[in-house]
Design goal:
about 200 residues, mainly alpha, Rna Polymerase Sigma Factor, Chain: A, Arc Repressor Mutant, subunit A, 11 helices, about 0% strand
């Protein structure tokens, strides 16, 4: 848990009403980026990432006193759990009537302009020195490959590399042993390398 988060949580415990808003502002940018990266194009036609965040915060604010009593996990992993649940609710409410998984058709895994340092963290783990410059300029191909992973593998890869979350934090978010997170992360990266390699071979024919 970051120093700023700890400081604000102490203020919340002390009864500082303004600290609740500060807590929201502190985590809003990362939370919005993660939600926006996962929203299906069809869902975006009906709701915005801000709508999901608003419901997330309403739920988080309601549950915050209980969280502060025990602090079972770090604050941001706890907030992510709520956000993922709310996003699933939005998907179910607005899209799943078509009986198709919205996650499999999402093209926002890496938002436009993400071929900067955060995306670079992922690219560097997938490409050798001779391939990095090629893959770095082909966000669409990487998005496609991410879309072929199962939902949990994709979430682990994105949080690990785009958000630089630790294995321990991911274990908290997904309620899995750290060893399971590590193995799923390893398998997901292996799948991505294979998928990107096949896509590149296909393009060269």
């Amino acid at each position: 848990m970051g120093i700023d988060t700890e400081r604000v949580l102490l203020a919340v415990r002390a009864g500082d009403d303004s600290a609740n808003e500060e807590l929201f502002v502190l985590h809003y940018p990362r939370l919005r980026r993660l939600i926006a990266a996962r929203m299906d194009t069809r869902l975006r036609q009906r709701v915005s990432p801000s709508d999901v965040i608003q419901e997330t915060w309403i739920e988080a604010y309601r549950r915050l006193p209980a969280y502060l009593e025990t602090e079972p996990i770090g604050f941001f992993p706890w907030l992510l759990q709520i956000a993922f649940n709310r996003l699933t609710d939005f998907h179910r409410r607005h899209v799943l009537a078509s009986k198709r998984s919205v996650l499999r058709e999402c093209d926002y895994w890496l938002p436009a302009g993400s071929a900067s340092q955060p995306a670079r963290n992922l690219i560097d783990n997938l490409a050798g020195p001779d391939q990095g410059s090629i893959i770095a300029h082909e966000r669409e191909r990487l998005n496609w490959a991410l879309g072929q992973l199962d939902d949990l593998e994709r979430e682990i890869v994105l949080l690990r590399h785009m958000e630089r979350r630790s294995v321990a934090e991911l274990a908290q978010v997904f309620k899995l042993p750290e060893s399971t997170v590590k193995s799923k992360h390893f398998r997901a990266l292996k799948k991505l390398r294979n998928l990107l390699g096949k896509a590149q071979e296909s393009d060269s024919w």
